# Entry
Amino acid sequence: MTTLKAVQWNTAFLGCLLAGSCWAADNCSGRVNGVALYGDTIEVGKGHTMTVFESNNITTSDNSPNNAAGKCGGYAITTPDGKTRVVGVCARKTKDGDSWSDEWVLEPGAERGTWKQVGGTGVFAGKKWSGWWQPVSMTERSSWVTGAATATRS
# Structure
């Protein structure tokens, strides 16, 4: 997996964070804009690679209070059989100072990834939200990657 592809999955996932702060709906939507800070791919062996990435991101939503900024980081492992698993963590903060963090994963061959909230303060304190996410679109402009995703929480 290329560094850009790992960052694209990371960026697309960030849209699913909108689901973590939807109060009345099971489905939420929004936009995410991100810029890669770091991405490095090493080849462990023939066809076996590891990519590590970090990005700054901003989420916006018309149907949830999730309008926040933060950072994400993670890794992608591609095995010699061509399967890639992407794993990440994110931390966000709203303009009111409330924050939350979550973990997410996209298993090899899956169209949808899963996520779960692992911590929060203010309105996010004590929440144990989780759900799925799926990229809707991704575009690339120089080092900027923009994506959209839909997600649900349980």
